[in-house]
Specification:
By secondary structure, the protein is of the alpha/beta class. It has one domain: Rossmann fold, CATH 3.40.50.150. About 30% of the residues lie in helices and about 25% in strands. The strands form 2 sheets. It has a 7-stranded mixed beta sheet, sandwiched between helices. A two-stranded antiparallel ribbon has the order 1-2. It is globular and about 40 Å long.
Length: about 200
């Protein structure tokens, strides 16, 4: 039976600063803006909203794509998720190294989320939740299709969570064969953000 991950207390100030490495985040944005949805890490308010809506059973894993500096990852752990249940996929090696150092016990995979089925081969545990931090709105439709197909291959029943700074859905659910539901809006984030859940149809 699935468990609801309730957001816990904020991490201590020192830990939060270590995770939210704004300098590293900004350097990544400068090197490739299309891989980033914002020039600053997500706020604690947004992180709590994402963690609140992630669900998995004790024998399942949560897969977070585009984990960046790990602020949402930390919120997931603070909400009660065991480190062994969290798998992070990060395409930038420098960011992946940072995540391994900052989040001991969490599995970090350096790779392209579009190849998610291959990246997760041999990983113990059924996927209970997929969280997409990749800014899909900035990608051509064909690339959006590749991401959505990868999500469906590893978590056909759970769909995926996606946070975005768009006022409306950042992708076209109908064209991608999805049902969409906005679960939360976070005006305290900069810029204001929404948490969406997309479920595969058919």
């Amino acid at each position: 039976m699935s468990q609801h991950l309730h957001a816990g207390q904020d991490a201590p100030a020192g830990t939060a600063r270590a995770i939210a490495n704004a300098g590293l985040f900004f350097r990544r944005w400068l090197s490739n803006p299309l891989q980033m949805g914002s020039v600053v890490p997500s706020s604690q308010a947004l992180c709590r909203r994402v963690a609140q809506h992630a669900r998995c059973a004790p024998d399942e894993i949560v897969v977070e794509l585009g984990a960046g500096t790990g602020v949402i990852s930390r919120a997931l752990l603070d909400s009660g998720l065991a480190p062994r249940q969290l798998v992070l996929v990060e395409i930038v090696p420098e960011m992946a190294d940072h995540l391994r150092a900052a989040l001991p016990g969490v599995q970090v995979i350096t790779g392209d989320a579009r190849a998610l089925p291959a990246l997760l081969q041999g990983n113990a545990g059924k996927v209970g939740a997929v969280i997409c931090g990749v800014p899909l709105v900035l990608l051509p439709f064909a690339e959006q299709q590749r991401f959505v197909s990868a999500f469906r291959a590893v978590g056909p029943e759970c769909g995926f969570l996606h946070y975005s700074y768009c006022a409306t859905s950042p992708i076209s659910p109908r064209r991608l064969g999805l049902e969409a539901r906005r679960l939360a809006w976070t005006p305290l984030n900069f810029p204001p953000a929404s948490v969406w859940h997309y479920r595969h149809v058919g």
